[in-house]
Amino acid sequence: MTSPAERLAGLGLELPSVAAPQAAYVPAVVSRGFVYVSGQLPFIDGKLQLTGKVGAEVSADEAAALARICALNGLAAAASVAGPDGLDGIARIVKVVGFVASAPGFTSQPVVINGASELLIEVFGESGRHARSAVGMAELPLNTPVEVELIAELR
Question: What does pTM read for this prediction?
Answer without folding.
Answer: 0.97
